[in-house]
Amino acid sequence: MPQLKAVSASEHRRFSWMPFSHYKFAKGDQFIPLLVNEFKLASTMAPIAFIKKGEGYQPILIAGLESKRNLLVSSEGYWLGGYVPSHYRSHPFCIGKNQDGKELLCFHSDSEFVHDRIIPGESKPFIQGEGLSTDLQEIYDFLKSCQIGSQNSDSFCSRCKELDLFMPWSPEIKLNGKSKRFTGFYCINESKLKNLPDTDAKSMLETGALGAIYYHLASLPLTTSLETLYYRQAKASESKDSGIEYEDVFTGFADDDSINLEW
């Protein structure tokens, strides 16, 4: 588990960080939390599914076929997909909560990108004056914008649940000649979607939820892309070939480093 600490102007005045240069910190993430306003860009890389979250649902990107293995990260730590989910963009920072439920800007204290000193010309300070540095304030603002996206995602899932659109989704894949079936995932029931009353369908269309649903549905067959990555990485590992080509596995949208909150 990552060691999270809340940023403190008094305790971390001399602390700094470097922008991450690889994605090795994400290699163990078989599933990646996703915002509904990321569906368009993420839908070309891997399947977008839903998991239970309390009484509701949460969208995720399925990034691996085995536990604790992210196929979208190469053995050298390169990101192989075209779009980087917002979940990773603020690393090594995130928003956490204290025992009273107050939200705090936190950092992964065990990250190799965090330093207990400022490295001139290389690292960026946590603190300037009595508050966050300009660079860290930008990251904090980004994280706050992601929270708005998370609220939108919760509203989207609540509406889909209200309309009884979720159904279990258990895709079957083959790894090394053996069949394996995923469980615990959900997808939108396309038949029920097509039979929505006109008023509900119109509402979903006007909010952009209908478009998000079809990006989700279009992504479901991309378990085949993950299978391709699985075998190519296995082949690269056997031959110790770090120059293996991945570009043709993915098509479509590139990462424009933006998140459109108007979904």
From TrEMBL:
Superkingdom as given in the UniProt entry: Bacteria
Protein name: SapC family protein
Pfam families named among the record's database cross-references: SapC
